[in-house]
Amino acid sequence: MSASLSARARVSSSIAVDGFRRRHQQSTKRGLVVRNAKGDIYEATLPKPIELKFNRGNDGGAYVVFVPNDPAYERFQVGDKIEGVSASFGDEVWGAESYGQVMYAIKNRNGDIYLKMLDMDGDVSALTAEKSSAFKNERAGGNYGAGTKEQQMNNYSKKRELETQRLDMFDEAIELYNAKDYDNALIVFEEVAALEPKNYMGDDFSKTTEIYKVAQYNIACCFSRIGKTDESLLALKRCMMAGWTDYKKIRQDPSLEFIQKQPGFTELLDKFDEPFINVNAVNAFKSLFGGKK
């Protein structure tokens, strides 16, 4: 891990992951499940893969957006915020400074994941766009007036600011990648992907932006460069599901050389890009003439 990444991920707690894991396991054995109040801090240690889903909040932090119906996740609620996360290796706990940093830590850690959580008691305001009081009053009365117009102008202004910020972050990530600082490039690319506008619809009716596709592709490249197979394949899958169709580049890009040699790569690509030779069809054809399969 680079020195600059260490600076980003300052330790905010003296709690060791393994020490907490032992306490958590003891509590689980006793069947203790504590529901906290809003503003309380609670902790959990979870095995990978984590079934929780997270998204970037308005403040740049990582928030829970999906909780599986599983007793192991009973403490969590949608809207809860990550305050600390186990480092990508070792027993340190990193302060959750940004969504990208949290995703980097979770995806790169090989062992169990420690999470220090802020209980929001179901408050999801950090995940929704703010609306002015005038807009709310007009909508409550079924009216369209100055408040609604002001809200629309504010939304447009924020959208333009966000687009500029996102492009700047993308350029920063590219510079980090070109400097072979793949760890920090990953953090910024994760931020870029997380800033994808909700309910986006392009002029060509595409449901994802070009920058999202490229960010996911570059996330795959970063993970390939540092030898993370599952994470790289997942990013490639997201990239292609978003509409990336340059399959030749995926198969030949030197940045993906590591992942191209791993089990699962060809299978994944073939789901999106039909191979030049359909092996099953060839074998079936041979069988008609008594050929060996």
UniProtKB/TrEMBL annotation:
Q: Which NCBIfam families match?
A: TPR_END_plus (NF047558)
Q: Which organism is it from?
A: Ostreococcus tauri
- List the InterPro entries: TPR-like_helical_dom_sf
What is the protein name for this chain? Putative SHOOT1 protein
